[in-house]
Design brief:
The complex is a heterodimer of chains A (about 270) and B (about 260).
Chain A: E1 10-14, H1 19-30, E2 34-39, H2 42-54, E3 59-63, H3 69-83, E4 88-91, H4 106-134, E5 138-143, H5 156-176, E6 181-188, H6 194-198, H7 222-233, E7 244-247, H8 251-267
Parallel strand pairs in A: 1-2, 1-4, 2-3, 4-5, 5-6, 6-7
Helix pairs in contact in A: 1-7, 3-4, 4-5
Chain B: E1 10-14, H1 23-33, E2 37-42, H2 45-57, E3 62-66, H3 72-86, E4 91-94, H4 109-137, E5 140-145, H5 149-152, H6 158-178, E6 183-190, H7 205-215, H8 229-240, E7 251-254
Parallel strand pairs in B: 1-2, 1-4, 2-3, 4-5, 5-6, 6-7
Helix pairs in contact in B: 1-8, 3-4, 4-6
Classes of the chains: A alpha/beta (about 270), B alpha/beta (about 260).
C-alpha cells in the first residue's frame, strides 16, 4: 500500500462520462477507489460505470445537472446512501463557448459562469458539508484550465469563470483547513481528449520533415491530468491545500516552431 | 506498477546527508523506497554513510558521493561517479541548501554570496551537468527544492528568500530550454517544516517557537502545523515519476494552510 493509493476511498467525479473526467474516473478506480460518475448524459455515464465495475471497483452513474442545487444535493445523498461516506470530490464539469465579445449578451455570460463556476461552488460546498459531518476530512479537487491564467480573447467568460475557480479554491481551502479538508485546483492546458482528437486538433507526433516530436512538445494526454488528480486525492498530498497545479506540456513551443518553419519556407 | 513507482530509475539527491535539514535524507530514503537507486550527495562522510546504510538495510540500492555543489569540478566528478556506478541518471533532486539568519541590514557580503552560491549556484551547476547526460538519453526529471520564502519573502533571511525565488524562476527557464530534450524540470517549495534544527539553520530557538505559535490557531488542525520532511519527499516522488509526465516548469508549494502573508 503506497501513499499514492486510494484503496476503498469513495469519490465523485462530475463530468465523468467523457474526456478528462473519464480519465480521472479510471485512474481513481485503478488506484483502488469506488467512483460515482455524474453528468447530464446517462448513456455515457453507464458506459464509464461499467468499466469501473469491470475493474472490481464499485460505481454509480447518476445523471446530474451540476448547475442545479437540488440535483447536486441528490447526487451527494445517493452517494452517501450507497457507500456510507464521501472522501473525494472532483468538480470537473464545464465547457467553453462564446460569441464574439462585442456581440455577447448577459445571457451568454451567465451561461458560462453558471456552467463553469457555479457548478464548482455547488459541488464543493455540498461535498464539504458531508466531509465536515463525517469528521474525517476529505479531498476536493477543482478542475480549472490554463484559460484561467492565460489570455483568451475567444473565450472571455470561460476564462473568467476558470480564473474565479482558482481563487475560490484558495478561499475554500483556508475555510475548511481546520476540518481536515484539502481543496486544490488542477489547470490542464490543451489536452488530447478523444473528442479533441476526433475533431482533428491533435497534430501528428511525426513532423513534416520525418522527425519525431519530443513527448514534452506534444499536447497533454488526459491521463496526465488524471494522475495529478490521483496525487491530490491521495495521502501523498496531505500537506498541500489551496494550491494550483498546472498540467501543461510545452506544446505551444512546437506549434510556434511549425509557424516559424512555415514562415521560413514562405520567405525562401 | 503504479504511475508513481521509480523501479530501475537512477536518482541523485544533493543535500542528501540531511545533517542540516532532514528533508534531503528523507527524500533519498523515499525515492529508494519507491524503487530508485539513489546517489546520496553531501559534503561530509558520516551522515551520508548513515543514509546509505539505512537505504541498504531496507533492501534498497544506494551509494554515497562526497561533493560540494558550489564547486563545478566536484559536480563533474559527482556525475562521473554516478555514471560509473549505474550508467545513467534519470532523476536529479537539488536539495542542497540552507542559510544563516539575521536582519537584512546585518547580512554581510560574505553571508550573501555564500547563501547564493549554496542555494542557487549549486542548483544551476548540478542541473546543467546532469542535463547533459539526460539530453543524451532524451529523458529526465529534475526537481529543485525552492521555498515558500521564494514567493512571500522571509523575515530575517532575505538572502535565502532571494536565492529561492531565483530557483523558482530558474526552474521555468530550464524547463523551457530542455523540453525539446524531454527533460522535465519542476520545483517543490516547502513552507515551514518541522525538522531537528528548525528548517532554517541557525534560527534562534525563541524565533521558531514564536512562529509556531503564530501558526497554531486553536482547532485549526494538522494543516495549520508545520509540515514534515515526508510531505516534501512525497511531492518529490510525484515529480520524479511518470505520474507528472504532463508537467514541467511548475512550482508546487507544500505549506498546509500557512498562507498568512501579503504575498501568495
Amino acid at each position: 500500500m503506497s501513499v499514492f493509493d486510494l484503496q476503498d476511498k469513495v469519490a465523485i467525479v462530475t463530468g465523468g462520462g467523457s474526456g478528462i473526467g473519464e480519465a480521472i474516473t479510471m485512474a481513481f478506480a485503478r488506484a483502488g477507489a469506488h467512483v460515482v460518475v455524474a453528468a447530464r448524459k446517462q448513456e455515457r455515464l453507464d458506459r464509464v460505470a461499467s468499466e469501473v465495475r469491470a475493474m472490481g471497483r464499485e460505481s454509480l452513474a447518476i445523471s446530474t445537472d451540476v448547475t442545479d442545487p437540488v440535483q447536486v444535493d441528490r447526487l451527494i445523498k445517493m452517494t452517501v446512501e450507497k457507500f456510507g461516506r464521501l472522501d473525494i470530490m472532483v468538480a470537473n464539469s464545464g465547457g467553453g463557448g462564446f460569441p464574439p465579445l462585442e456581440k455577447a449578451t448577459l445571457e451568454d455570460w451567465d451561461q458560462q459562469i453558471t456552467l463553469n463556476l457555479d457548478s464548482a461552488f455547488l459541488c464543493d460546498v455540498a461535498a464539504a458539508r458531508v466531509m465536515i459531518e463525517q469528521g474525517t476530512g476529505g479531498k476536493i479537487i477543482n478542475i480549472s484550465s490554463t484559460a484561467g491564467i492565460n489570455l483568451n480573447p475567444g473565450l472571455a467568460a470561460y476564462a473568467a469563470a476558470k480564473a474565479g475557480m482558482i481563487n475560490f479554491t484558495k478561499s475554500a481551502a483556508l475555510t475548511w483547513a481546520g476540518k481536515g479538508i484539502n481543496v486544490n485546483c488542477v489547470a490542464p492546458g490543451f489536452t488530447a481528449t478523444p473528442g479533441i482528437r476526433k475533431a482533428g486538433y491533435v497534430p501528428s507526433a511525426t513532423r513534416k520533415d520525418g522527425t519525431t516530436v519530443p513527448p514534452l512538445l506534444m499536447p497533454n494526454e488526459p491521463e496526465h491530468v488524471a494522475d495529478t488528480c490521483v496525487f491530490l486525492a491521495s495521502e501523498a498530498s496531505s500537506h498541500i491545500t489551496g494550491e494550483l497545479m498546472i498540467v501543461r506540456t510545452m506544446f505551444h513551443m512546437e506549434r510556434s516552431n511549425d509557424v516559424l518553419r512555415d514562415r521560413a519556407k514562405l520567405t525562401v | 506498477m503504479s504511475q508513481f513507482g521509480l523501479n530501475e530509475k537512477v536518482a541523485i539527491v544533493t543535500g542528501g546527508g540531511g545533517s542540516a535539514h532532514g528533508i534531503g535524507s528523507c527524500i533519498a530514503r523515499t525515492l529508494a523506497g519507491a524503487g530508485a537507486k539513489v546517489a546520496v550527495v553531501g559534503r561530509t562522510q558520516a551522515p551520508l554513510d548513515q543514509v546509505v546504510s539505512d537505504i541498504r538495510s531496507q533492501g534498497g540500492e544506494a551509494i554515497g558521493v562526497i561533493a560540494d555543489v558550489t564547486d563545478t569540478a566536484a559536480v563533474k566528478n559527482m556525475v562521473a561517479q554516478v555514471k560509473s556506478a549505474w550508467g545513467r541518471i534519470d532523476i536529479l533532486v537539488n536539495s542542497a541548501g540552507g542559510s544563516s539568519f539575521g536582519n537584512p541590514e546585518d547580512i554581510t557580503g560574505e553571508d550573501w554570496s555564500a547563501c547564493l552560491e549554496l542555494n542557487l549556484n549549486g542548483t544551476f551547476f548540478c542541473s546543467t551537468a546532469v542535463a547533459r547526460e539526460m539530453m543524451a538519453q532524451q529523458s529526465g526529471k529534475i526537481i529543485n527544492i525552492g521555498s515558500s520564502s521564494g514567493i512571500k519573502g522571509e523575515e530575517n533571511a532575505a538572502h535565502y528568500a532571494a536565492a529561492k525565488a531565483a530557483i523558482i524562476n530558474l526552474t521555468r527557464s530550464l524547463a523551457t530550454s530542455w523540453a525539446i530534450h524531454n527533460i522535465h524540470v519542476n520545483c517543490v517549495s516547502p513552507g515551514s517544516v518541522e525538522v531537528p534544527d528548525h528548517g532554517i539553520p541557525n534560527m534562534p530557538d525563541g524565533e521558531y517557537a514564536r512562529r509556531k505559535e503564530l501558526q497554531s490557531v486553536e482547532g485549526a488542525g494538522a494543516l495549520a502545523l508545520p509540515g514534515n520532511p515526508q510531505d516534501i519527499a512525497n511531492s518529490v516522488v510525484f515529480f520524479a515519476s511518470a505520474g507528472s509526465d504532463g508537467m514541467t516548469g511548475e512550482n508546487l508549494v507544500v505549506r498546509g494552510s500557512e498562507w498568512a502573508s501579503a504575498y501568495v
